[in-house]
């Protein structure tokens, strides 16, 4: 996992990989091998030195849409009134 988006695979590349995995899973002989690879990858991921910096993370926040809706409605009404 890389924070630099230029070093990460594109969505189409990820799609191709997932498609290959799906085809592999259809073949029951490869299911156990794929499962082993995922288990091994989980172990490797836990050992990667990935730093987490608060400035590199974002947090979703709830936005009150009532004020936005009221402002739009008021603006529309003001424009309608001025057009008369």
TrEMBL record:
<protein>
    <submittedName>
        <fullName>Uncharacterized protein</fullName>
    </submittedName>
</protein>
């Amino acid at each position: 996992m890389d924070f630099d988006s230029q070093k990460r695979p594109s969505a189409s590349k990820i799609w191709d990989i997932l498609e290959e995995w799906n085809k592999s899973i259809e073949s029951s002989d490869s299911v156990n091998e794929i499962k082993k690879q995922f288990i091994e990858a989980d172990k490797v991921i836990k050992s990667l030195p990935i730093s987490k910096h608060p400035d590199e993370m974002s947090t979703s926040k709830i936005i009150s849409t009532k004020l936005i809706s009221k402002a739009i409605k008021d603006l529309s009404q003001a424009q309608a009134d001025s057009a008369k």
